Amino acid sequence: MTEPDLSLVARQVQRGDRAAFRSLVEHTQRELFRLAARLMGSTADADDVLQDAYVKVHRALGDGQFDGRANLRTWLYRVVTNTALDALRRRAVRPAGDDRELPALGAESCGGAEAQVALSELARWLDELPVEQRAALVLCSVEGLTNSEAAEVLGVSPGAVEQRLVRARATLRKKRGGDD
Amino acid sequence: MTDEPDSLLESLARRTGGLEPPADFTARVLARVAANREREPWAVRGVVLGMLAAAAALAIWVSASAQQEIDARALSGLELVELEQ
Lengths: 180, 85
Hints:
The structure holds 2 protein chains of 2 kinds. Chain A is an all-alpha fold. Helix content of chain A is about 70%, strand content about 0%. Chain A folds into 2 domains: about 1-95, RNA polymerase sigma factor, region 2, helix turn helix motif (Rna Polymerase Sigma Factor, Chain: A), CATH 1.10.1740; about 130-180, Winged helix-like DNA-binding domain superfamily/Winged helix DNA-binding domain (Arc Repressor Mutant, subunit A), CATH 1.10.10. By secondary structure, chain B is mainly α. Chain B has one domain. Chain B contains 2 helices and no strands. Chain B has helices at about 5-15, 25-85. The radius of gyration of chain B is 35 Å and the shape is elongated. Chain B starts with a helix and ends with a helix. The interface between A and B is large, with 44 and 27 residues.
């Protein structure tokens, strides 16, 4: 399947073209699902977060909030990351005993058992980090974005991203030392 | 030493590279967007009705206040006439 020009697709969505929105979802969902899963540490949470994010994307495009000056991929990353961070913050303040059982998604439908094992391992490493540090680490060290790209996604300066990365790496190094 | 956490994360990035959404994901997103689109006009109508009700209440209050002021002026006028007589 050839990749369409997503900026053009976004403009079609802005004009109310429903088929264009389907195309946008189909061509971006794999990459954004991986991002959401890595941020959330679970495919069930990623499913919820990404659905919410696409609803926001649809509304924002309809309202003309995406003006085309920003890179569409960066903008989509920002919407998904912000939605995931909100969900992580809600999860952090959820009272004890309110751990609602999320619908389990089959491993085979989400990339296989090995990927699920690796995702659980990633979640265990990132679990103790504050959400802002977690996001910086996932964007730069897992997704492979540069500090400037991550800064644009997070809406902070590249210096702030670097600071979060230094702190997050220090915490991970300490945790690794403790586990050995 | 500085690369140690990053090499761990790079390995986990490779191993989670195969993650993908369930097959019915697009259909569920489109259904949610459609449901939201149907709900939104009602939400807008609710806001408009609320604003109309608030405007009506304000108009009634302004009208009542104006009437009270007219009555008060009329009464004070009568009192002046009575005093002059």
